[in-house]
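sorry to bug you again but im stuck and you know this stuff better than me. what follows is a protein written twice so to speak, once as letters and once as structure tokens for the fold. mainly i need to know what kind of three dimensional shape the backbone takes. anything you notice is useful, everything is just below:
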Amino acid sequence: MPVDPSTRRQRHALFLGLLGVVIFSLTMPATRAAVLELDPLFITLGRALLAALLAALTLVIVRPQPPQRRDWGRLFWFSVCSIIGFPLLMTIAMQYAPASHAAVVLAVLPLLTAMAGVLVAHERPSLGFWICGVVGTLVVLIYAILSGSGAGNLHWADLLLAAAALSAATAYALGGEMSLRIGGWEVISWALVVSAPAILVLFLFLAPPINWGASASAWAGFLYVAVFSQFLGFFAWNKGMSLGGIAKIGQMQLLQPFVTLVAAYLLLGETIGWMEIVFSSVVVGLVALGWRMRVARSP
């Protein structure tokens, strides 16, 4: 039976969104592995410079049309949030919190992404969508309080992770909206290239000495966050959001806690307790219900 264009478009969007979620889900375990032996500032700036090099090569080979004047301001804020804000805040937080804890705290991202979609792309989620999102956020906050009690610096890590989630949500909304005009991979490529000179200056003046003797696992984590988290993951994610909508595809992040928890267990040997499993399941269920609610998109 032939598939109508609208259904095909939605399936394509969901596939790209799922691919982006899987790539981003491994960011926290990879960052955790890297930050154990590499400085957080080096990881943040170094991953951006390596990704910018790949982006420059891609733009030179493909030679796409440059962004329009109206998009340069949004590219700037996209760069601030996705290239500096989220990576730096999350990398510092990973010094004080295990990846399994961060996975559940960042489960609030779908709600924040939907809110950013309203402000940036003028999407209009239904009341049921918002109710599910707010309840899910409360559940995540309860988890953060319970798991952080008596843990000292873990409270600071929760604040850093919350700020990182805000940065990521803003970047996702801006990237998804701009991808309608520029293209998914072009958004992250132009943003990396444009921000590269400033990042290089920061790297030369602020980055600490590089620990060249770090283990293979630390360097593997650094390479992953540079090549996949900072660059290739946005290819699929931005395009998926432009096809399926920021709020709708943003709900694909409901799978992220599960993927991250499993990755933290397999790659880092972190313990997954019943608290993580229960709270992740509740949050995923709530956001999945919200994903079924109506979201109107502006033409």
Remarks:
- The first helix runs from residue 5 to 25.
